[in-house]
What we know:
Largest sheet of chain A: 11 strands, mixed
Structural class of chain A: alpha/beta
CATH class of the domain at 6-250 in chain A: Alpha Beta
Structural class of chain B: mainly alpha
Oligomer: heterodimer
Number of strands of chain B: 2
Shape of chain A: globular
Distance between the termini of chain A: 8 Å
CATH superfamily of the domain at 6-250 in chain A: Amidase signature (AS) domain
Strand order of the largest sheet of chain B: 1-2
Helix content of chain A: 25-40%
Helix content of chain B: 25-40%
Strand content of chain B: under 5%
Shape of chain B: flat
Number of helices of chain A: 15
Strand order of the largest sheet of chain A: 1-3-2-4-6-5-10-11-9-7-8
Order of helices and strands of chain B: HHHEE
Number of helices of chain B: 3
Number of strands of chain A: 11
Distance between the termini of chain B: 44 Å
Largest interface: A-B, 71 and 51 residues
Strand content of chain A: 5-15%
Amino acid sequence: xxxxxxxxxxxxxxxxxxxxxxxxxxxxxxxxxxxxxxxxxxxxxxxxxxxxxxxxxxxxxxxxxxxxxxxxxxxxxxxxxxxxxxxxxxxxxxxxxxxxxxxxxxxxxxxxxxxxxxxxxxxxxxxxxxxxxxxxxxxxxxxxxxxxxxxxxxxxxxxxxxxxxxxxxxxxxxxxxxxxxxxxxxxxxxxxxxxxxxxxxxxxxxxxxxxxxxxxxxxxxxxxxxxxxxxxxxxxxxxxxxxxxxxxxxxxxxxxxxxxxxxxxxxxxxxxxxxxxxxxxxxxxxxxxxxxxxxxxxxxxxxxxxxxxxxxxxxxxxxxxxxxxxxxxxxxxxxxxxxxxxxxxxxxxxxxxxxxxxxxxxxxxxxxxxxxxxxxxxxxxxxxxxxxxxxxxxxxxxxxxxxxxxxxxxxxxxxxxxxxxxxxxxxxxxxxxxxxxxxxxxxxxxxxxxxxxxxxxxxxxxxxxxxxxxxxxxxxxxxxxxxxxx
Amino acid sequence: xxxxxxxxxxxxxxxxxxxxxxxxxxxxxxxxxxxxxxxxxxxxxxxxxxxxxxxxxxxxxxxxxxxxxxxxxxxxxxxxxxxxxxxxxxxxxxx
Lengths: 486, 95
C-alpha cells in the first residue's frame, strides 16, 4: 500500500480492502519507528488523525467519498490548523496553538483527508537545508548524513520515506522544488495566486505560494485539485474557475517545444546533475518533443534581487512578533522596548535575524531607491525574459538545483553558498510562474537529481501532463529509499 | 560593500533585536558578504523600467462594508503570553 498511487489508495478505500483508520495507523506506526531518525515531523496527534480517519470511513461507507477522502496527508508546519500546535519551525511559535484553520487546511478537511501531522521546516521557511529549524535538522532518507533540502524539508523527507501518502509545501524561492529534487519526489509550485495564503504564516507575501509534494505528477494533480480555489480572505487570491488538474495527464507530447535556457547549463552546475537532466531531455525527444535554445539573460540577477525583496517583505511581516498578542516572550526584561528586543532576539534563530536585518537595512531611509526600487525594476526584467522565452517554447526545462543533496553542516557557516543552491528556482517566484521538480535519476553516490519544468501562467495541467508522460516512460519517481517491504 | 559596526547596531535597533558585541560583529561580517552579492544589481541600467511589486498586475479588490468576523476574544487571547480581564499586559509605558 505504501507504494500505491493516491488513485489506487482511494480505490482500495472504496473497495473496503483497507479502511482509513487502518491506513492512518500504518503511517502513524511508521512515523513512530522512523521519525526519531529523520525528524520529518514536528508534531503528530494520533487522536485527532484517527478521529478524522474514522469520520472518513463513515463517508466512505455512505458512498459520499471524494477522491482524497481517507487519505493521510502531512501538512507543513507553516499552515495554521485549528487545535494543532503550529510552530513555523521557530522558537517564537513553539507553543502556539492555532485558533483557526488555513484555507488549505479547510480544503483538505472538506475533502475528507486525514491530517497526519505537521512537518518540520526551516524557520519561517528561510533556508535551503532544513537546518535552521528550532526543532533540529531533518535528514534525507536516501542518506542520513545529507540534508533533505528546504524549506519544505520535512515534507520531502516524509514523502520519500513513505511516512505519509502525500504532503503540502510552500515555495517562496524554491522551497517545494529544491527539497523535492534532493529527496527524489515530485513537487509543484503553482502560479502565484492559485492557492490561498490565508492562514499560511507569511514570509515574503509577493512570492509565497503553496503546492503539493508527492510521489508522482498524477498524485500532485489530485492534491492540487484540493488545494486551489478562490478565497476572498487572501487579497491576492485569483478569482478563477475551479479546474481539474488531472484532465490532460494522458495527452501525447508530440510537437511539444521545450526551451533550454543556456544560463541554466553554465558554470556552477554539477556534471552529475547536468548528465541526468540531459538524459531526461533525451527521453522527451523520444516522446516527440523538440528542443529550442533560449536565453534568460537576467536570471543571474535573480539571487541578488531575491535577497533584497524577500528580506524586505520578511522584515515587515515578522514585525508582528512582539511578545504581546501571541508567541514567545522573554522571561526577564526592564521595560517595553527591552521586552520587544529580548523576545525577538531569543525567539528568532540566526538566519531569520539575518534576513530581518537585511530587510530593515534595504528599506531604511536613504537606501530604498538603491536597493528595494532597483530590485523591483530588475524583477520586471526577469519576468520579461520569461515572457519573451514563452514566445519560442511551450515549457522551459533545466536542473532544479545545481547539485544533489549536500552534507549536513556543509554550508551552514556560509549564507551566500546556501543562497546559491536556489539559483535556478528563484527567478520563477519573482515572475510568479508555476514551476515543478521531477525525479530524473541518481548521482554516483545514489542521491536523486531533479528536472525542473517551468510553465507559463496557469499552465499547471499541461506541466503535470508533461511530467506524467515522462513518469510513464521512466521509473525514477517510483524508486524508494525504503528497504523493508511492509 | 562593507558595513560598519555602527550600521549593524542601528539596523539591530530598528529591527528590535537585542544583540551583544560578539553577535554584532558576526552579523557585520555575514551581512557584508550578502551585500557583496546584492551589489551585482547596481551594474544594471534600469532607466525607464517600471518597478514590479507583484507577480500579477491586479488592483486591490474591494468588499462590502459589513461585519464578517465574530468576536473571538477569549479564543485569540488564549495564546497570549499575559492577559488580564480581556486585556494584553505589557510593562508600564507611562509613568
